[in-house]
Structure formats: C-alpha cells, structure tokens
Sequence to fold (412 residues):
Amino acid sequence: MHMTEEQFDIIKAQLKKLVAIPDGFYAKKFAGIDIDAIKDQSDFEKLPFTDKGDLREAYPLGIAAVPPEQIVRIHSSSGTTGTPVIIPYTKKDVEDWAIQFARCYEYAGVTKEDRVHITPGYGLWTAGIGFQLGCELLGAMAIPMGPGNTDKQLKMMMDLESTVLCATSSYALRLAEEIAKRGIGDQIKLRKGIIGSERWGEKMRRRIANELGVELYDIYGLTEVYGPGIGINCQADSAVHIWSDYVYLEIIDPVTGEPVSDGEPGEIVLTTLQKEGAPLIRFRTHDLSRIVPGDCACGHNEHPRIDIITGRTDDMVKVHGVNMFPAQIEEVIAAVDGASSEYQMMIDHLNGKDIATLFVEVEPSANKYNMEETIATEFKNRIGFTPQVKPVDIEDLPRSEKKTTRIFDNRY
Ligand code: ZN
Fold:
C-alpha cells in the first residue's frame, strides 16, 4: 500500500516521540534503531512488527504513551486464555473513535432519522459503546440493547421501530430466524444491518439480508486499534474503506512478513496515526484480506479498500497435509444447493490418522444421503481431501451472540 507523504510525516514524528518516552514501550522495542535514518516507506517497512503478545507482556498499562492522568478510559481485548490486553484511551482517542464511527454510519447511509438497535456487548470489550458513541455523534437514536434476551430484543425492535440493526453476523442470523419463526416480519422496520467483529460467508450474508429485508454493511476494527469503526463498506460496493487519516494500512505475507502487492491476499497490519493513549506501529491483526485496487464508485478514493475478511492467520489448520481456512469451507458450502450457511468441523487424530468431520445444516427439503456425497465431493475438489460429512437440520448447530467457533481441532 502506498504511503502518502502526509502519512509518512505523521508516522515519523510519532516514532520520534514514542522512542523518547523514558522506559516506554517503543523506547524498549525499538532500542538500537535510528529513527532519523528512516527516510521513506521502505525504511519504515523494515521496522519490527508489534504483536498481541507484546501488548500482553506490557500488561496492565505498559503500552501507555501518556501519563495516567490523561487516560480517561480503558478497554480490553478478549484473550481466549491467559493475560488480557489493556488498551488505554485519552479523551481525544475516545472522540476520534466516535468521529470514525459516525463516518461509518454515514457511509452506510444511516441518518438522524434512524433508530439504531445495538446488540453488541458493553463493557471492557469495545463493541457496544463504539456503536453507541458514533450513533449519538451522528444524532441518530441509539437503543443500547446489548446482547441476549431475544424476546426483549424483538419487543423493543417492534415497539421502538428500530431501523438499523448492529450485530455480529451470527446474532443477526439468530434474530432473523426468530422473526421468521414468529411470523412477525411485517412488524419489523429494519432497513439496514451493520455487522461487525466476525468473518462471514456470502451464503450467510444473503440469508440475513433476505430474511430481515435489509441492506448489509461490514464494519471493521479491533480493540487494539480503537475498536470497530476504523472502516466500513460504502453504498457503492462491498469492499471496506479504511480511514486513511486514522490508520495506515499494510498487507503482508503472514509467513515471511514481507509486504505483498496490492490485490494479493495477506495479513492486515495497521499503524495508528492519531492515537495518544496506545499508539501502535505495524500492529499485526492476524486478519486476512487484500487491498481492492482501483477506484470506488463512491469517489472516496482517499480511503483505501480491503476485501471482506477471509479468515485469521491462526484459524489456518493443517489436515492430511493440506492448509485450510474457514473461508474455503464456506465456499464449498456456498457451492452446494440445499446446504445452509452454518457448519462445524471437528478434527481428531485416531490410529495415526487425521479425521475431519464436517457438520452442515441443510434445508428441510434436502435429501441428507445425497447431500453427504455432494458436499464431500465438492470439498475434495476444492480443498483436496475428503471429510466425513454429517448433514444436520437447520438450527441444530449452536448460534452464539459473540464469535462463533466453527473449527474444533481436538488433535493436540
Ligand atoms: Zn466506496
């Protein structure tokens, strides 16, 4: 990704400031690196990456680049195990996040007239409160539901005539299914869905859009870099614009760490341009995507675009010697008529052999025996080995309000 002169100047000034903080995170990390010798983008690309492990080691507030009295809030990212990561925010960071989030709503065509039903959680996690701040800054009506209690969600959605649903893709699907089951679709006024924090396949997207009758938008972000709201797709296209005035975007080869050409898939690496509390230099997100080259029909070419996230570098599993990403399984399922969007894969190791079992929800009209064979063949053709396929009924697999785990590796 081409770095603009303005971005370079901001980054360079920021680097000089960060390494000058006595005993600071980057003073230690970049010890021995001559910041003055960084003259261009390629010099910048030689700087070491920052990883979540570095932030974990800095627990609780070692990442802070300002004195504690300037910190007005902290958020924490959900480590599945062990020490969490704490991200401190200054007043400006909180305001900047709201500005970016309001811009996301604007790109999605949300206006002051809208009533925004917010189901992501509130708390240490950055989700709910970001949706709320951006909504209030825009001037729309925020309905801060948080997750859970589907009965209450649907009641409020009908009574308050919510027009925008903010949710993870799996919770949006669950609400859509519940609305269909209760036959209350005519009382739902939703017109847009803003879906974040989870990777989702095309089939799931179509189901949610059709069942809720909404236009869908993908919002991107992560707790370490403000939270959701650093980018969203516009009304012209499905690619996600990333706010170039707040973050500098790189796509790298996750194995070699080298930048890839625009358009090539790789890992998203972000450098913050305005953050005060916890500025991050070359932060590895472990999210996989690619730059979408060329101009967007919306005209906002100052904000580069990435594809919908196709996976996480750490979601990659190796079965029978084949590297596999969840997005590939989604493609298999999407190609089979009668297969629904939901699946789970269990990987076990028995008698010296890997055994992969793929559970797939199928339409009630589908012949399960035929589905077993069709999906297995499609899988073999596209991914390179044959799993045991177990077709199940719609809603047999769990829906979660947070992130849904779809691949369970029981081998280690
Ligand atoms: Zn656009």
Remarks:
- The first strand starts at residue 71 and ends at 77.
- The first helix runs from residue 5 to 19.
- The chain is about 30% helix and 25% strand.
- The radius of gyration is 22 Å.
